[in-house]
Specification:
By secondary structure, this protein is an all-alpha fold. Helices cover 66% and strands 0% of the residues. The chain has one domain (30-115): Arc Repressor Mutant, subunit A (Orthogonal Bundle). The chain has helices at 10-37, 42-52, 57-64, 68-82, 87-96, 111-115.
Length: 116
């Protein structure tokens, strides 16, 4: 990382360091996510596929016969393990990993069709 000396004062320096740090984090994120995939439980992988198909937490809970709170806990664990912060990032992760099988959008198929 190189930081240019600026006459703009400490705020310019902070901005340069922040930009360099963000770029470095983004460069290493794919490798971290690939390693994180192996740490997801089978249920978390299943829920990740449903998140990528734009299912709501309520739809997931009703279909998988688990509580809404359990779903939100799984979603939180998925975010933590993959280093992501949103459903959009979860969908992008799923699209980048062919081992995550796509599922139809709610409510167009039965659970057996979705998970088969």
């Amino acid at each position: 990382m190189s930081v240019r000396v600026s006459n703009d004062g400490p705020y310019a320096l902070v901005s340069q360091v922040r930009s360099a740090t963000t770029a470095a984090e983004q460069q290493h994120q794919p490798a971290r996510q690939a390693a994180a995939w192996s740490r997801l439980s089978p249920r978390e992988r299943e829920i990740l596929a449903l998140l990528a198909a734009r299912w709501t937490d309520r739809e997931i809970s009703e279909t998988l016969y688990i509580s809404y709170r359990t779903v939100t806990t799984h979603v939180s664990n998925i975010y933590d393990k993959l280093g992501i912060h949103s459903r959009r990032e979860a969908a992008m992760f799923a699209l980048a990993h062919p081992e995550i099988r796509p599922v139809p959008s709610w409510p167009h198929a039965t659970i057996h069709d979705r998970m088969a």
